[in-house]
Amino acid sequence: MEADNGDQDQELSDEEEEMEPKLRYERILNDMPEILRNGAASCIAVHPKFIALGMHSGVVYILDHQGNNIRNKELQLHKDSVLQLSIDEQGDHLASCSRDGKVVIHGLYTSDHNQVLTFDRPVGAVAIDPNFYRSGSGRRFVTGIDKVVLYEKGFLSRYRTTILHQGEGPVRNISWKGRFAAWATDLTILVYDMQVLDFICMISRDHDPLLKPELHRCILTWRDERCLLVGWADRVKVCCIRQRDPSQSTVSEDSVQPKEDTSPRNPADIYVEIVSMFQTDYYVCGLAHLCSGSLVALTVLKNTDNSAESSRPQLRVMEPHLGESVERSSDILSVRGFRAYRASDYCLDSLPEEGLFFVVSPKDVIVAKPRDQDDHMDWLLQHEKYEEAVQVALSSRDLKRYTLQGVGMQYLEQLIQSQDFERAAEMCPTVFGADARFWEELVYRFACLRQLRCLAPVLPQGGLDPTAYEMVLNEFLQLDPEGFLKLITEWDPALYSVPTVVNAVRDRLSYEPSSVPLLKGLAHLYSVEGKFDLAIAIYLEIGAADAVFSLVQKHGLYGVVQEKLALLIRLDEEKANELLVKSTDQLPPDTVAERLRQQPQALFRYLDALFRRSPALCEAQHMELARLYAVYAPDKLLPLLRQSHSYPLEEALRLCQEKKTHSSHHLSTQTHGQHQGGSPSDHGQAGRRPPGHHFLQGA
């Protein structure tokens, strides 16, 4: 059973975010529905072993926590409404009291200590000693009618009685935990030390005295042996029993001291401190605690419109503070017949260590449990908090009904429905990893939506059918040529069929023959296929110099360069010359010079670069370079003539005379000396000298 969130008195505003429930709810089934169909529940007591359910008929049922009748029969202990049940710590004995005036001590496994007390009026409260099961404990229990009486076995196993308190009217509730007990009359709450039989403190009623005590029964619940939770009408208190430090001499303002000293011990040794006290907008029908320190309160709304019908009960989780509480969740419960019930018709008991909270109404028993990770996931998905749900699925090992892939698929569907395709694609690697089946299905899904471009950056690089990658490339080809070019340069060609993609590009180019990205893409694919001549032809056509030179150097395509040399020079002369100068073994200067003679300036710059790198590289072209220097760089002519001896001196003289250089006379003189048979060695020169040596030195 789920909490009912549909009948809330006020709708959440747009700005207010709904709180996630802290608890989940189930109706107890099995034998329980049949029991409640034949009668009405009046009270409950729970133990780690079982549930004791008291009925208005006087019957007490013993059931397991799932609602199965353990004893296969009812305990007909009373003839009228059972008003309170109490179980000892071991779960061996049960105490009950009833409107029929009886108190019954019933052994669940033995009748040795069974006891029935009969009074002439209803008995409103009973509590059994938690240690009742122990031999030598005195088999004690306490009853409450108009006074609180302790029953204890003494000599010859006869019970003796001790009046613990009287004079304040009917006793409505008694609760006993360990050493301490507490009870409530219509006027006060008393906390009692059952070890020394002395009261510790009295807490006076502080709610509206017009509220009828029989309709607003005081709730007493022990969080542990020294912490008492009190809920009375619209007031809640958390009371802690303290042991005073002997060195302290003052009393805290929030502590409650005994009215009088009636025991041998110093009454100031133990005191009660109210650590939290606050008023509520509702009436408290039951109190329990979560192990986290929060309180669980069963509540009903105050009837402000004088309506005869009651509202649904609510189970609230709150954090108690000194003068207030912070509500963490509030769940409206779907209780059968709630309209006819009052606050006194509900009760709550719990097993906090097991995370079980039992809500009882006359025709319903509901168990509340702390929500687990699956419940948390239910709520996140119900409220479309998909991103947070994915994070929980990633980090939690406690999910039983959900998987990361299942949650991720719901998130994916939501993102696709909202057309947030980029975000949908981004979350897929985290959720689905390298699951090839999922990715292939997703490719087809995104293809139908024409959103494969969003999927491409996160697509696994390998492991999928080549068709999946080809579909992605085709969408880019049709809608984003630049993206297509980027993708084929980034992806490993082994992912897809290169011939298939080449055909697709060629088909697309028939509609856009001048598309540079498509041409570059086709050239790249040709180079992948090893069709370098086709690739370079395309690069040259579109002027992609960098691609040409990179391809040539990477694959040694010097033969292709030789055929396209003139075009390459026009494309980027500087890079072309750099390539030619570095590759004289593959591209001999004689061959290059021959192909560039129709472009004198290009030839000049090529030979000049070659000469600057090493004069020996173009020795056969020195005279040709001299002619080009004379035309394009006269200032470089003399340095060439000084360094080189690979040119005819007469032709060099004629070249200088044609250009009317100022050194023609010196070159003529040197030429005459050469014709007279002189040589550098005849003049005492050591080593070989180049022709025109004297001219060059005097120049």
UniProtKB/TrEMBL annotation:
InterPro entries: Beta-prop_Vps41 (IPR057780), Vps41/Vps8 (IPR045111), WD40/YVTN_repeat-like_dom_sf (IPR015943), WD40_repeat_dom_sf (IPR036322). Gene3D superfamilies: YVTN repeat-like/Quinoprotein amine dehydrogenase (2.130.10.10). GO terms for biological process: cellular response to starvation; endosomal vesicle fusion; macroautophagy; protein targeting to vacuole. Residues 1-19 have a biased composition (Acidic residues). It comes from the Eukaryota. Signal peptide: none annotated. GO terms for cellular component: HOPS complex; late endosome. Coiled coil: none annotated. It holds the Pfam family Beta-prop_Vps41. Residues 666-681 have a biased composition (Low complexity). Residues 23-369 form the Vps41 beta-propeller domain. Residues 1-20, 658-699 are annotated as: Disordered. PANTHER family: VACUOLAR PROTEIN SORTING VPS41, VACUOLAR PROTEIN SORTING-ASSOCIATED PROTEIN 41 HOMOLOG. This is Vacuolar assembly/sorting protein vps41.
